[in-house]
Amino acid sequence: MSLSEDVRCHLSFAWLFAISLLSALAPTQSAFAQHATHGAHEPKDAPVDINDQWTSRYQVTYGWNRHPSFRAAYTGPNSLLPIREKMYTFSATAHWGWRPRAGTEIYYNPEAALGVPFSDGLIGLGSFTNGEITRAAGKKPKYYRQRLFWRETWNHGGQSETQESDFNQFAGSVDSRRTVLTVGNFSALDVFDDNRYAKDPRIHFMNWTNWAHTAWDYPADSRGFTNGFAVEFYRDDWVFRAGRLAIPKEPSGLRLDGRIRRHYGDQFEVERSHELMGQPGKARVLMYRVRGVLARFDDATAEFLASQNQTPEADPQAFFRVRNGVRTKYGAGINIEQAINRNTGAFLRAFKSDGETETVAFTEADTSFSTGLAVDGAQWGRERDSVGVAVSANGISKQRRRYLDAGGISFFIGDRDLQYRPEKALEAYYSWGAIKNVWLTANYQRIHNPAYNSSRGPVDVFSFRFHAEY
Predict the structure, then answer these.
(1) Per-residue pLDDT, 3
(2) Which is it for the CA torsion 205, 207, 209, 214, positive or negative?
(3) 8 A C-beta contact, residue 412 and residue 125
(4) C-alpha angle with apex 182: 351 to 179, nearest 5 degrees?
(5) How much is the pLDDT for 416?
(6) Residue 84: per-residue pLDDT
(7) Residues contacting residue 273 through CB under 8 Å, at least 6 positions apart
(8) In contact, 402 and 396? CB cutoff 8 Å
(9) Which of 29, 141, 302, 381 could, after both became Cys, cross-link 114 (CB 3.0–4.6 A)?
């Protein structure tokens, strides 16, 4: 580690310590109270003012990952390096909100982030080991606007429901029958694919497959945010959601395409609350469609093989040359959360995309599955702690497989040879509530067939996470 990098790390930890002290002055709550509804962190017995006009909340997260050397028969241009490596991420975010009148809310989130991934690039895996790495772009902090959006709520009767103070959420009461409109700069994950037990990589599971549908190629820039609108219709135990969001001008790029009538991502989700053996749960079905200038894998494979016959060392990123028409990509999946008892909950996600076209914004997966358990530390007298374990499996389509097997590479994967097997992972964590609103987490992941290649791995990843909020 260079001297300048060492200094930056010390400054980051000094900042973390300062935030920790501030956080210690704030109230605390059990692990399962975290993100119970869009990330709720307010204790249920804490006094709240439903007439507040302003809200401000802050978070700091530091993540450190290391993997030892692992077996690799060969290494390609987009392979995870088989030598011992480390990575780290750091983020600090402010969540500021203004409520000019009842039902109207405006939120602004500035963020600073830094970090370095494994192998000096976000490569070598279908599902990466740290959810914060999408916003980390080097050793120097990057400051940017994360979110700026307007939310309008119209109540239509039914039972009164209490919303507690949260990140980007005012305390107050709403009707069980209501309409909510969100417009502006936000994340598709703010509205769709929620799950009480597996949602936020800052406090829950870290692996991408365990906090979102990996095969859902949701519209976003390279940091994970977009522009557009989403509308939600709450009807007691049912919720219907739909949204149109901007996609990047170039797949996996930072600049968004403003031509949202021509190039866009449409999302539609149905949610149903239920009880199973007296315990609450929710089931969600999510469908999406992306329309943009994209390359088909079969076209890219043909182009690459043709160019390779002329030049043996031809550029393997052939899909850049066949991105010449507007294509449609689509998929669907299911998301289930289910309480087993007061302190234990289970989750399950399964998703499938058509797999004919390149990745637009998220990661390299065409099918994904994950399931696991989360247990509140109240079970053993540590109500601020939690433990979780999950297993997952991702796959890629025949079209993507043929392209990679021919020697092509894409944004995140490409070993120049492919012995295909699904990428499978085990993840386990223990989150320790060290002091009020400060959590230290130990995390372990074991990944088989990284980048869908049985000639490489398994990879063991050991992680540490610091998270503070107030």
Answers:
(1) 43
(2) positive
(3) yes
(4) 90
(5) 85
(6) 97
(7) 237, 238, 280, 281, 282
(8) no
(9) 141
Cβ neighbours of 390 (radius 10 Å): 27
Under 8 Å between Cβ of 60 and 16: yes
pLDDT at 24: 43
Q: Could you tell me whether strands 226-235 and 177-186 are parallel, antiparallel, or unpaired per DSSP bridges? A: antiparallel
For 191: left if phi > 0, alpha if psi spans -120 to 50, otherwise beta; the answer is: alpha
> Strand, helix or coil at 1?
coil
pTM above 0.90, yes or no: no
Residue 458 per-residue DSSP state: -
**Rounded to an integer, what distance in angstroms lies between the CA atom of residue 295 and that of residue 421?**
24
Which three-class secondary structure state does DSSP give residue 87?
strand
**What was the pLDDT predicted at 425?**
98
The pLDDT tens digits of the residues spanning 424-469 come to 999 999 999 999 999 999 999 999 999 999 999 999 999 999 999 9
pLDDT of residue 121: 86
Q: How many angstroms separate the CA atoms of 189 and 184, rounded?
A: 14
Secondary structure of 140-177 in HEC code, one letter for each residue: EEEEEEEEEEEEEEEECCCCEEEECCECCECCEEEECE
Within 10 angstroms of residue 57's Cβ, the number of other Cβ atoms is 21
> Which structure tokens are listed for 370?
């994950």
Helix (H, G, I), strand (E, B) or coil at 184: strand
Q: Which fold has domain 3-469?
A: Porin (2.40.160)
> Can you give the length of the chain in residues?
470
Q: How confident is the model at residue 410, as a pLDDT?
A: 87
Q: How far is CA 319 from the centre of its chain?
A: 26
**Reduced 3-state DSSP string for 293-345:** ECCEHHHHHHHHHHHHHHCCCCCCCHHHCCCCCEEEEEEEEEEEEEEEECCEE
pLDDT along the chain (470 residues), means of 10: 47 48 46 44 41 90 97 94 96 96 96 93 93 86 95 96 92 95 98 97 96 96 96 98 96 92 97 96 98 92 77 58 89 98 97 95 96 96 96 97 89 91 98 95 98 97 96
Q: What percentage of the chain's residues is helix, strand, coil (to nearest 5)?
A: 15, 45, 40
pLDDT of 48? 43
In the three-class reduction of DSSP (H, G, I as helix; E, B as strand; rest coil), residue 32 is classed as helix
- Helix crossing, 297-310 with 398-405: angle to 10°? 10
Nearest to 377 by CA among 367, 369, 385: 385
Is-cis flag, bond preceding 458, omega within 30?
Answer: yes
51 C-beta neighbours (distance < 10 Å), count: 10
Q: What is the pLDDT of residue 33?
A: 52
Q: Which tokens belong to 381?
A: 């007298």
Q: Would you say the C-alpha torsion 394, 400, 404, 406 has a positive or negative sign?
A: positive
